[in-house]
Amino acid sequence: MKMKRAIQQQDKETRKKNILQSALDVFFNKGFKAAKMDEIASNANISKGTLYLYFSSKEQLFVELIQQIASPKVNQVEAMVNNDSTLEDKLNLFKQHAKNMLVDQQLPKLMKIIISDSGAFPELVTTYREMIVDRALKTMSQIIKRAQSNKECRQGDPIELAQLLVAPVIFSAIWRIVFEPSGATKINIDSLLALHINMLKQVLIVKDRVDEDAI
Amino acid sequence: MKMKRAIQQQDKETRKKNILQSALDVFFNKGFKAAKMDEIASNANISKGTLYLYFSSKEQLFVELIQQIASPKVNQVEAMVNNDSTLEDKLNLFKQHAKNMLVDQQLPKLMKIIISDSGAFPELVTTYREMIVDRALKTMSQIIKRAQSNKECRQGDPIELAQLLVAPVIFSAIWRIVFEPSGATKINIDSLLALHINMLKQVLIVKDRVDEDAI
Amino acid sequence: MKMKRAIQQQDKETRKKNILQSALDVFFNKGFKAAKMDEIASNANISKGTLYLYFSSKEQLFVELIQQIASPKVNQVEAMVNNDSTLEDKLNLFKQHAKNMLVDQQLPKLMKIIISDSGAFPELVTTYREMIVDRALKTMSQIIKRAQSNKECRQGDPIELAQLLVAPVIFSAIWRIVFEPSGATKINIDSLLALHINMLKQVLIVKDRVDEDAI
Amino acid sequence: MKMKRAIQQQDKETRKKNILQSALDVFFNKGFKAAKMDEIASNANISKGTLYLYFSSKEQLFVELIQQIASPKVNQVEAMVNNDSTLEDKLNLFKQHAKNMLVDQQLPKLMKIIISDSGAFPELVTTYREMIVDRALKTMSQIIKRAQSNKECRQGDPIELAQLLVAPVIFSAIWRIVFEPSGATKINIDSLLALHINMLKQVLIVKDRVDEDAI
DNA sequence: GATGAATGAGTATTCATTCAT
DNA sequence: GATGAATGAATACTCATTCAT
């Protein structure tokens, strides 16, 4: 059965979105090499030929998929720092963003794809890291650095502190993506992140009174 | 040139080890689907045909590889709990084990393979998780639970505390495996784990009474 | 952008001519199999769909192209014989016709197509041969035969003499079509044909005086 | 049914020859684009996979085929000039070589392939032309030039004379390759070449003195 | 009538697996 | 036991043809 034609530019964009969504599923489940263009096409309810009207090759589809997903996330990450509340507020905000990201799953799925196909697409890993990962960690470490100069935060390498802040989010992402589908106990994201952030606040945030700090 | 025949049982085992090591490299770098039996064979200095004298199929080689690597790790993990020192000692020990694991890279590589091919081998993920991950987390959480009943450790869900304990190790593993080859700043494992464990000690360990500690 | 409708019969014919011209270029450059309908269409400034309003298939377009080009040539060839001048005049006329044909290139291009796709279209080769080649050779051989009975021309198989007359034209056509585009020294058609015809005249034409002929 | 294995280097060469022979047939009949690797393989009584053990791609097979056929011909052509007999002897020798070439058909088939796929492989045309065609024509024109300086041959551009010498051979090749399979009257090569060479001798060869000739 | 989006049969190429040597 | 030549199923990609707009 023939698909309705996408004559309008708008329809074409929609069609492209459908294909990218289907591609995300298939690349995510199978990895680049094992993903079949046929499967991506039929999951998007189009024929193989139509796929090639929108993307000139498997590789181009793959690369564009990564970019489409990754791009909007950059700003979200950056948004967190343009906000001059207290460190505590920022940690709370981070918790919220992290939760959304984990629930939405797009970024975790992307992460899984990147991990899987890092060997075959080293440039992609570089791009993704520079665009998202380095940026996010840099943003976080700047927040911490600023808080440290305010005496709001305890001392310690800001980059390593940012890594420790982020680690449980990565852990949760992998858990959900890799282990839960195979029957693992589900992680309670809310609870885990709350515990994580609470503990961090306890160690990081300097209480105003000098004497309390004197451990 | 023909390879020497592996007449002795011992030689056979050595040959198998070589193949598995080669397979680990190739599966790790390419993923299951993109890995070529030819490459695994030639990296092990044997012919393609010989490969099939030791493993009946690519899939069987893959499965056996996972098991061969995973099995010995189970005991290492379990060893940590058979030791009734203080929580602080145990956290130090964990730090040491974690560092070794990250330096040795076998387990991180296995982790990458599992993540990559989880879609194609769900049973394998289950096995790996039950054998290693669940066991490790359960062990950690038991340590914490015990410490909590000793009043040595603050309250909080022991499983989630174990997850937070483990998270930076996972993070470091992924960083080293995925990002460092593509040019990321290298993680200082020692320093990061030290910071992590120190912070954890600060929040978790209950200082009983000042005088007891001072002995 | 939509093309103007070819409402008038005249427009239709023009459109068809355009398509055939475009098809000639493409079939000539690529051969039947490698020629793309898309390219033929866009070179004719119409859409792929429109092509099918004029020709029901690639094959039909091909066949019709051959016929369209070949047909008018038949009469040109035949025209040469309906002319009762001397053999020398006829050879001069042949030289002129040959030169025009080589300069115009349509027939040489057709020849290249026929050679290339003879395997796939044997009936076409038959048609083309019967319509053009056999006819031309027969015409030539009749001229020669007639001249022989006039004692204007030396003896010898008229068909073979016709073939030898034509051979340098075929040679020149191939040279121009195949070799010149890849950098070969250009043939000087005028000069080559003049030499050819002069030499032929020397051997063929019987000078009036009996004693000179007595070799 | 599996083919016997080519273990010895010699067997491999034989296998390669078989494939090239099959490829010649198929490329000759269909042209490069329409030729199917499957057909080449099955005509050589091997599987498609085996083809790729000997040639890495269709294009490489094509190029190697051209070279394999063309290379040995170069020397044959050159051989004609290393011989300091009279021009008449050389023309007779040429007649003989030309006949052999036409009967053997390998070079005519190659010529047809070159003509057909000249558009897609311009470098190949260049190579073939430089290796064979230019060389042959240059050889012929040198023979003529030398004969002209000996006063053995009449004046005229040696290159054009060489082209006229060669033209009927090209004509015959095309006739046999393209027209005879579709039912054309067969050319009598012997007779046509004899007539051609005789006529050439008449115009070209300068009879020194009547009495010398009369011995 | 004209368009070009959609289709799917057709083809080059790869690679796990077999098995004659 | 070891080898690597042979196989053919599997898969990315192309392009003639159709037909909704």
TrEMBL record, chains A, B, C, D:
A matching Pfam family: TetR_N
Residue ranges for the DNA-binding region feature of this UniProt entry: 36-55
Residues covered by the HTH tetR-type domain: 13-73
SUPFAM superfamilies: Homeodomain-like, Tetracyclin repressor-like, C-terminal domain
Annotated GO MF terms: DNA binding
Keyword annotations: DNA-binding, Transcription, Transcription regulation
Domain of life: Bacteria
Classification via PANTHER family: ACREF/ENVCD OPERON REPRESSOR-RELATED, ACREF_ENVCD OPERON REPRESSOR-RELATED
Protein name per UniProt: TetR/AcrR family transcriptional regulator
Organism of this sequence: Neptunicella marina
Origin organism lineage: Bacteria, Pseudomonadati, Pseudomonadota, Gammaproteobacteria, Alteromonadales
